[in-house]
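B., you asked whether I could sanity-check this one before it goes into the benchmark set. Here's the sequence:
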Amino acid sequence: MGFATRYLTKRVPPLLRYFAGTTALFLIIDEVWTVFRERSEEGMRGFISLPLRFLKYFVCTLIVFALFGRNAFVALSLFAWFRRVDNVVDGDTPLPERWNVHQYRFQKNILLSAIARGASGDLLVEDILLVKGVETARYQGVTVLDEIADIWDVMEWGCTRQETGHLASRSELLFQTAKQDRAVLRVMVKACRGNIERFDEIAGGFTGSFTRADWLDDMLEDIQQGIINVPREAISEYHVDIAQVLLCRNWDELMQYSPFASWYRDEVRQSRDEWREMCARLGEDFAGIFSSKIVSTGFMRITIGKVEPQFERAAARMTELSNSS
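And here's what the prediction gave me:
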């Protein structure tokens, strides 16, 4: 958790409302620090290099602000808000005192409805990120409400699945992952001043590769939270016993359970093939969505550059499985 976490689940006092822009910037910087720390090397070597590496990461963030100004603020503030809300819902960050997760999600639903009507609602501190992000987008003549609603719908769908134990079909999983990919990337394209019509043409062929790469990489953590991202048809086809999957405590145990390992191997191969096909369509300039080569290169690094290592880690688990059999 970042250095602002202890303020996360408190209601917004009048002073913070008055300095909402500064507070939002403070929370974004805190999220930059948190993301960096999560991705940094472990051990003494990582600890020693931490200050310089964080400085590089922070300077890159400042460059993004310098290039895109308020539009960058929109994307970063919404990113930080969704991450913080997701952490609370997942139990990684404490809920507000005397609240349960249903009350917390209800508050977000009410807030999103109010913002869609142009009104204001009861805010927790992290909600300053949402409010300022939407306000800044409107000031820039950009609309992001539909994308926010789509991302929230997918989050709510995931919460409902976890609560009810619903096993989704492959078509349902593909629909939801593609919906999230389009919404997230659409916000980023708008923030980077890309050709949104051109993006929508490309996004029509999305199969959820960005989100599915994340799922394959985080499969163990999701299972430990009771989230099963295995299609209902695959459970039957591969004879996967979900009760046994939920008992697995680490990747070795998951990969030693042959029905699950067989599905995971085939899913990684299929998803990676689809990913490569999509990358071929996007080319080296993200399908020409951006007029600036610098912007195209930067966008490719924060999108393609994030997903490719996730598929590599998933493929490495398959290799380890083959070597051990």
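One thing to flag: Residues 75 and 187 are 6 Å apart (CA to CA). Otherwise nothing jumped out at me.
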